[in-house]
Amino acid sequence: MTRLTLPLLIGALILSGCGRFGDSGWNPLGWRGAGASTPETLAPEGGYPTAQDARPAVPQILGAEWQPLSDGRLLVLRGFAPVKGYHSAALVRSVPRSGDQLQPDPDGVLRLRFVASPPVADNPAAALPANPVTDTITVALPISFLRLSRLSAIQVEGGDRVITLTR
User: Fold this and answer.
1) How far does Cα 109 stand from its chain's mean position?
2) pLDDT (tens digit, 9 = 90+) per residue, 118-152?
3) Domain map of the chain by residue range?
4) Is residue 51 a contact partner of residue 31, using CB atoms and an 8 Å limit?
5) In 3-state terms, what secondary structure has residue 89?
6) What is the DSSP annotation of 101-127?
């Protein structure tokens, strides 16, 4: 019985030190300071700056299409470069933004750039001309139905033109 009494007595003393409405320093509700409703953060106001993607735009966009998925659609883009060896193709935001990269602009349009890294200058592939039939650059982006409901259009910018797709 004494084994249980001593921990209960210590607990009761600690709880009695909490006081009313955060008056005591022992009360965990008052540890964040008076009137603090949100936790402090080290993030700068407006978020962290994001760097612009240094890859150049794909020189020529051949086409864009939607393909159905079970939970949304797949945006497929095909492009072409004048020489072989382009790699690391991707769709990136036209204007870098912290947070969700697929968040549309206030007008409901998601603006993307079709980019790829060119071959290194001393690479032998950089001297070979590309064949439009076999050397296309393809990139795809899955978009769920929930995200599609927030978009009015998707605008993809390439080296030679801008393609706008509606949902």
Assistant:
1) 16
2) 998 888 878 888 888 888 999 999 999 999 999 99
3) 1-32, 60-166
4) no
5) strand
6) TTPPPTTSEEEEEEEEEPPPTTSGGGG
